[in-house]
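Entry for the shared binder. Reason: the reviewer on the internal report wants the predicted structure included alongside the sequence.
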Amino acid sequence: MELIKKWTDDLRYLPYHQWDDKYQLFLNETIRKSHWRQSYHVQPKSGLLNDPNGFSYFNGKWHLFYQLYPMGPVHGVKSWAHVSSENLVDWQSEGIALLPDSPYDKHGVYSGSGIVIGDELVLAYTGNVRDADWTRTSYQMLAHMGKDGVITKDATPIIPAPPEGYTHEFRDPQVLFYQNKYWLLIGAQTEELEGKVLVYSGETLEDLQFEGPLDFTNQSMGFMVECPNLIFIEDKPVLLFCPQGLDKNIMDYQNIYPNTYIIADTFDGEQPALKNASSLSNLDHGFDVYATQAFNAPDGRALAVSWIGLPEVEYPSDSEGWAHCLSIIKELQLKNGQLYQTPVKELIELRQDQTSVSGKLSPKAAVIADKTNNCYELVLDFSADSQGRLLLYSDEEMEHSLVLDFDAKNGMISVDRTHVSNPFAQEYGTTRSLSLEENKPLSLQIFVDHSVCEIFVNGGQHVLTARVFPAENEKDVYLEGTSGDFSGDFWCLRNMKND
């Protein structure tokens, strides 16, 4: 038996129960042999994962859902998979929560969000339906999960169609409660092919009224806005979203589509508008983050999780029948008018076998760690005059690696995957760079998990995320440079407990 390589629409939209059990067993067995599978990141048992959905805290647990197509590494008929956690670190599978099995979602349960109302976790999602001519219709739906974990869908949509003047590209509802009203934000496209964030409000989610497009910029946000997500940090509204087709003169980016944010002073629901909004900023300066979802948790933190993957890009793991994972959970904070992202404090529970490192940077590469299992956390602090490079996923000859070039003296850092063993998405560039303050100490906190690398710069002021697919002998970490001092710690990290 061989993995399917040629995917037709008939295959992609074949109901799950019509698949041959033998093929599913073969697919799972093939994936189990992969050395690129994650140890502490949420990933699908098989097939393709994309947008995180329904991130919430309910009934004493953290809940997280994600879009799933379990039959292969392609975008087929989607469902929502469900995982739960007591500590934001160890995520247990709760199975498939929402199947494409109703008249309003039979061609896919698309992205959405969650909100606790009374004794229920209410899930808002987009139902995808296609007619005989393959024309899409989008419906905004609700489902309800009780404390017993049972989920039931509403029989009819809360929003049956986009408002006049908008196309069927109408999806990704975010629900929130603010100033004694329920609000729903949704990504949309005008008939003139401009991306917008649309706003609905009401006393309940069942009586929402259209308030109009959200006013937060006079610039074009491309041809479509996906995954709009409004949170509040220190009472300031922060809007996360993914503008597709954004003009690079508005914000410089290299990925096929960026994940962005703005910060405003206030949210005016009467307009509706975000007042005194900042210019657009990149949420992640690396290669592979999209569809970030955040929410205001009951413990006072603003927590976020991202899809580590991009639409319309092929990844090396596709050849093994699976694709993508979710990021670690991040806390969002505002400092000096900028959004900071830091790994949640609970992640220290993963740490094992600490090793401290320190010294002077030298042209002769220092071995920070060798023959690792590519599952570790590395924290490094550099002096303000430091100039050098860090090699991750390296072979002994240092011919293949993910390279981090840094220059604290002149204020620069870059991530380069030109020399990795399994390159991909090269048409979007192989290097990502960002500017830092000059002559300032530099700190890096790096999480490596087999084929994922998440790099937090200067306490979360910047984040660079990259997928890397190393050969089996590429497990060393080297550090070299021309000036400066360094110190830090290396921890092996345990596997996620998911039983």
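Summary line for the report: The mean pLDDT is 97.
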